[in-house]
């Protein structure tokens, strides 16, 4: 049956859906190239696609070199430790960490971890509050002013406050997480929990009255009602909120990292800008492209997750 | 006198509106015996669903109450199972799981909730006590087979037709072993053929289980075919029970044979006359008033205060076309 469906797919439709995006991208890059060459800044010509590609390969090579250096360092350390052990001097065995520079790809990893932590923390706070607010009109009326006041606040305004609080509260001799990591993650949480909260509340409050009545006739307990009727019914709206939150969180993260100096993509852009070499603009552009691609991938990932969890086969999920 | 199975006692229902309370129901009194099939019929907006929701406990009456087996009930509960007009199945569960939700809820009742049933009843019907997992599975499949949905029990609501969904809704209600089955225009959204099938199924289930059913319907034929009594409501606002028509047709009832039966046609006549002559559609009345037509019969008012709608127990010796206007009081 499935093969029949595949054969029925219009070839011209398929070609259109593949070729048009490619054509669009090409036209964009062409226009970018032309426009870039016109702009002369103090750091050189504005980077076009070619320059971006060149810098990307530079970054990749730098990454490989760093990794090679790190490997060599660890190999030497192992050899030294083995020699000491052979001489029976276990006390002289040392395991030092390689203190090389973070490469571009390490920074990508740091950014992803930070945004993930901030987003999950935000969702864990927003979804329960959203459920209670959606079910109880009184609660909704109570928290609504607070939500509306805090929602529009920019991450750059939160950042100094969060930094001071984290410095004061997160004191420990051997911290598990760097302060900059905590600051960035908390800022992401503060900014990205609002869409999830609002959408969850709306989704929960718009559960069909008939289904609520079914729950009443069955005398379902509060928790059972939420688990079996309210949550599955509100799931599409909750997911909409989560997707919005994640995209906002990713944007907020870059800004937060810049100011909090968390070793991620934000810091990379900031450092390059401070550096002011002739390569800087190109490398920043690489970061911009990578940020965009990761944002796209995150959203696509959430969409696939939503499709996988969705019970409503008739709903069109884009 | 024995305690009636279900009693609606002097029910008034007011809804708050910006212009003051809107009286939807006034002095509704009704008595239902065990095993009876009651239809409630009336024009749109006369408060039929309101009555049903009050019996179900989904609405609380402003005055008066509902008494079930001697205990007043004002909260919803599985002993008064409701079948909604829009099936109300959970769309993310299969048919089996929908029924299972109800069964699990009812048959894992905490002991203190079982107080609604007297000790004798609990002993007489062991199904009302807790069930084991295997018993539950059997019970769910039995109920689905009662409505002929056992072949499609693993399908989701969006994979089955409207009639099938409604059947699953009926199975879910029956699986709760309710004392009263409340049906709010259950076949209203179905086509005529499916409706006929469903009516046959319902009659058979009623004959097998001998349960008490209160059904709201617009369809006069359906009401006369299925019920033991038809409760005809007056028009709103402040609607009440206009007349109660006792249907003394032999069971099991065959619709084809009945279509030529003079008694059946007479009952139909009575209901139609009430609805269209004596209790006309409010829109029609307004139109006639506008055209200066003064000969139309006044809409029959709701029951006179103090006159209870006593029910003549089945098996009485009264003639076939028995109807009791509001003012008369018939003593058992």
Q: Quick summary of this structure?
A:
Chain A is an all-alpha fold. Helices cover 79% and strands 1% of the residues of chain A.
Describe the overall structure.
The complex is a heterodimer of chains A (318) and B (332). Chain A has 318 residues and is mainly alpha-helical. Chain A has a domain at 103-309: MetI-like fold, CATH 1.10.3720. Chain A has eleven helices and two strands. Chain A has a two-stranded antiparallel sheet with strand order 1-2. In chain A, helix 4 packs antiparallel against helix 9 (222-260). Chain A is globular, with a radius of gyration of 26 Å. The mean pLDDT of chain A is 88. Chain B is built from ten helices and eleven strands. Chain B has helices at residues 48-56, 95-107, 119-124, 133-146, 162-175, 192-209, 220-226, 255-258, 262-278, 282-290, and strands at residues 6-15, 22-32, 37-41, 63-68, 71-73, 80-83, 180-184, 212-217, 229-233, 241-246, 322-324. In chain B, the strands form two sheets. Chain B has a seven-stranded mixed sheet with strand order 6-7-8-3-9-10-11, with helices on both faces. In chain B, strands 2-1-4-5 form a four-stranded antiparallel sheet, covered by helices on one side. In chain B, strand 1 and strand 2 form a beta hairpin. The interface between A and B is medium-sized, with 18 and 23 residues.
């Amino acid at each position: 049956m499935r093969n029949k469906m595949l054969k029925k797919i219009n070839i011209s439709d398929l070609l259109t859906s593949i070729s048009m995006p490619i054509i669009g991208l090409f036209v964009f890059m062409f226009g970018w190239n032309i426009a870039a060459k016109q702009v002369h800044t103090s750091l050189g010509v504005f980077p076009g696609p070619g320059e971006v590609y060149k810098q990307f390969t530079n970054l990749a090579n730098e990454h490989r070199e760093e990794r090679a250096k790190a490997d060599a360092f660890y190999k030497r350390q192992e050899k030294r430790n083995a020699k000491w052990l052979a001489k029976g001097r276990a006390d002289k065995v040392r395991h030092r960490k390689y203190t090389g520079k973070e490469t571009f790809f390490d920074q990508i990893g740091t950014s992803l971890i930070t945004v993930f932590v901030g987003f999950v923390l935000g969702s864990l706070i927003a979804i329960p509050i959203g459920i209670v607010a959606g079910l109880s009109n009184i609660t909704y009326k109570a928290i609504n002013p607070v939500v509306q006041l805090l929602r529009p606040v920019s991450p750059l305004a939160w950042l100094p406050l969060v930094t001071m609080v984290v410095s004061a509260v997160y004191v420990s001799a051997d911290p598990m997480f760097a302060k900059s990591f905590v600051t960035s993650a908390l800022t992401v949480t503060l900014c990205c929990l609002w869409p999830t909260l609002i959408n969850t509340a709306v989704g929960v409050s718009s559960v069909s009255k008939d289904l609520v009545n079914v729950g009443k006739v069955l005398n379902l307990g509060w928790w059972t009602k939420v688990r079996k009727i309210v949550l599955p019914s509100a799931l599409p709206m909750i997911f909409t909120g989560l997707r919005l939150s994640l995209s906002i969180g990713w944007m907020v993260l870059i800004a937060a990292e810049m100011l909090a100096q968390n070793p991620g993509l934000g810091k990379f852009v900031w450092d390059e800008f401070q550096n002011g070499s002739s390569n800087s603009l190109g490398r920043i552009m690489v970061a911009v492209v990578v940020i965009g691609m990761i944002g796209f991938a995150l959203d696509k990932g959430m969409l696939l997750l939503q499709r996988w969890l969705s019970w409503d086969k008739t709903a069109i999920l884009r | 006198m024995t305690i009636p199975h279900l009693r609606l006692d002097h029910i008034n229902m007011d809804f708050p509106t910006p212009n003051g309370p809107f009286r939807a129901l006034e002095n509704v009194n009704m008595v239902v015996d065990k095993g009876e099939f009651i239809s409630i019929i009336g024009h749109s907006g006369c408060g039929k669903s309101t009555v049903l929701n009050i019996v179900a406990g989904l609405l609380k009456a402003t005055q008066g109450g509902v008494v079930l087996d001697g205990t007043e009930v004002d909260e919803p509960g599985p002993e008064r199972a409701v079948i909604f007009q829009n099936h109300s199945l959970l769309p993310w569960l299969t048919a089996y799981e929908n029924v299972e939700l109800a069964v699990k809820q009812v048959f894992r009742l905490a002991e203190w909730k079982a107080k609604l049933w007297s000790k004798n009843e609990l002993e007489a019907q062991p199904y009302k006590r807790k069930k084991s997992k295997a018993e539950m599975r059997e019970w769910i499949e039995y109920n689905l087979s009662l409505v002929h949905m056992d072949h499609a029990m693993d399908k989701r609501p969006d994979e089955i037709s409207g009639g099938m969904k409604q059947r699953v809704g009926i199975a879910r209600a029956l699986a709760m072993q309710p004392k009263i089955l409340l049906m709010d225009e259950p076949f209203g959204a179905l086509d005529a053929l499916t409706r006929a099938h469903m009516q046959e199924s319902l009659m058979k289930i009623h004959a097998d289980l001998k349960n008490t059913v209160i059904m709201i319907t617009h369809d006069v034929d359906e009401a006369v075919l299925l019920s033991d009594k038809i409760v005809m409501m007056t028009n709103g606002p402040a609607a009440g029970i206009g007349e109660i028509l006792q249907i003394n047709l032999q069971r099991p009832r065959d619709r084809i044979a009945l279509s030529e039966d003079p008694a059946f046609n007479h009952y139909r006549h009575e209901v139609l006359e009430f609805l269209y002559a004596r209790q006309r559609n409010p829109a029609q009345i307004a139109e006639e008033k506008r055209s200066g037509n003064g000969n139309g019969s006044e809409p029959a008012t709701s029951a006179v205060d103090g006159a209870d709608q006593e029910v003549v127990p089945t098996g009485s010796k009264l003639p076939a076309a028995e109807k009791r206007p509001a003012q008369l009081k018939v003593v058992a």
